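PROTEIN DATA CARD
Card holder: GPP34 family phosphoprotein
Chain length: 213
Origin: Virgisporangium aliadipatigenens
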Amino acid sequence: MNRPLPQRMYLLGCAVDGDRPVIAAARFRGELMRAAALAELSLRGLVTYRRGKAAGVPGTSVDDPFLASVLRYAPADRPRRWVSLISHDAHTAEAFVRGQLAEAGAVSVDPRNPLQGAEVLVRDREAVRGLRNEVRDAVIGGRDVAELPVDRLLTAVLAAEAEVDTVLTLSERWTHRKRLKSLAAHVEPVAPGLTIALRTANATARSYNGGWS
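Structure generated from the sequence above:
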């Protein structure tokens, strides 16, 4: 699936095995969208990490509006800690990414239930199922980590940290905790400390509002 990491992470929240492929309610989704954006920017070489803080690379830009908004909060002349970058505007991140996917035709938003919020339907169930299976395979498939694409490893690690149960259940995360730790170590050089920062941001969100954006 050729989409930026935040959009892929959002789609992975889809309950694709039910009668209707809808996006399941999930905690920490705003923080996850921000962390995924930072991972994507790091993969593209647009963010650097030094002395415990991250900053944009001078003279660089990105076309994707959500990635650009995250990058603007990490200017080259003002490095910030990962936790700050993840938590900033996390409450608006989910809606931002959902809007991008709706505009691209990947999801449709049904606002009929004002009490429970809009229902988000995924258009291409099979594409999301294929993405989910790839990410799950990185964790439970037993393949050599070195053989797997870095972005897939990042997706798996972020999904586990953000407790995306549609990808890995709590039981699976516990069973494969050593494998997940190995994947996290493998992607650590891409964005040093990012996954730990996501864990910290999620803990803060949990204490503040239960983790719901």
